Amino acid sequence: DEIYTYIGLVVISINPYKKLKIYGPEKIQEYRSRNVYETKPHAYAIADAAYRWLRDKHQNQCIVISGESGAGKTEASKIVMQYVASVCGKEQEVHRVMQVLLQSNPLLEAFGNAKTTRNDNSSRFGKYMEIEFNFKGDPLGGEITNYLLEKSRVVAHAEGERNFHIFYQLLASAANSQLASLRLKRDPELYHYLQVTESADSDVTYDQYSTFDDKKDFKVVEQALVGIGLQKTELRGVFKFIAAILHLGNITFKPIERADEDEACEVLDKTGLINASALLEGPIEVLEKALTIKTVDTLKEQVTVPISVEKARNARDALAKAIYSRLFDWLVEKVNS
Predict the structure, then answer these.
(1) 10 contact partners, CB below 8 Å, separation of at least 6
(2) Cβ atoms < 10 Å from Cβ of 149
(3) Could you tell me the pTM of the whole model?
(4) Cα 48-28-219 angle, rounded to 5 deg
């Protein structure tokens, strides 16, 4: 259980892949206002040293958390945040700021993390979190900057992995009435973007990878969304976009013959198209045209050109990725505001 050690001022940690009783209020008190080398190596010691130097010397501090996938970077960042939240003042505004920062963790994990073959909760984006403090050492606000969201995971993931957590959480925990309003059903295997493999010969099922408590996690995410100030209409909008992406993935195409022998296609089954259009609140014809026809601007006019089935699939996937990326950026902006 001794997972920490020092190399100079750098703390090295090993992911134990289990819960250890070396965190919490009692442990925080052991490391509070203590010299780094007075106590056993711990993330709390580094957090305390940085916090006291900022408060007492009035110098900006930066804690860099790095490591390979599965090393425990996400958990380490939460441990540092937990420590800072515990040692700050208890005024109402200070408490509000820290609650927003703490609630941003489960929120960004739901929308930005996924299961990979190496890590059940792998961050699929980079994050820089900045917290501003007053002269007393109390947080006044913060800002999160996100980098390089793995948008490709929205439309495809390897066998043994999952899409972003939020898709499964919504299907597992949303009320029946909410699912009906989103035109969804609970089984993740009904949605192309959530299927564990594209191989028709594979007998792997979603349940074999389902080691998550998606129902419980979804409740935490809902609380976090409310905690960062989302109104009911905005909350509904978030889930409508998530559902629309799932329906987009179920839109399939078939080739059609043309007299000029150009490649062309049309939507094979319009159920996904109808559902996605309804949730995106746009005309069905506009979405169908956007996915199956390319518009080319010339000097004098606009020319519409039919596209192949493969290009239509690419257009569908590009739209799904763009919607998810913009939704993620919007959520980060809401946290920051």
Answers:
(1) none
(2) 21
(3) 0.86
(4) 110
- Which burial class, exposed, middle or buried, applies to 150 when counting CB atoms under 10 A from its CB (0-12, 13-18, 19+)? middle
CA-nearest of 168, 218, 217, 166 to 196 is 168
Rounded Cα distance between 35 and 45, Å, is 8
Report the largest interatomic distance among the alpha carbons of the chain, rounded to a whole angstrom: 83
Phi, psi of 149 (to 5 degrees): -60, 135
> Is there a contact between 117 and 160 (Cβ–Cβ < 8 Å)?
yes
- Give 160-185 pLDDT, tens digit per residue: 899 999 999 999 999 999 999 999 99
Burial of 287 (0-12, 13-18, 19+ CB in 10 A): buried
Q: Burial of 218 by CB count in 10 Å (0-12 exposed, 13-18 middle, 19+ buried)?
A: buried
Report the alpha-carbon distance of residue 57 to residue 109 in Å, rounded. Answer: 33
3-class secondary-structure state, position 41: coil
* Structure tokens given for 151: 């948008």
Take residue 7 and report the two structure tokens written for it: 């190399």
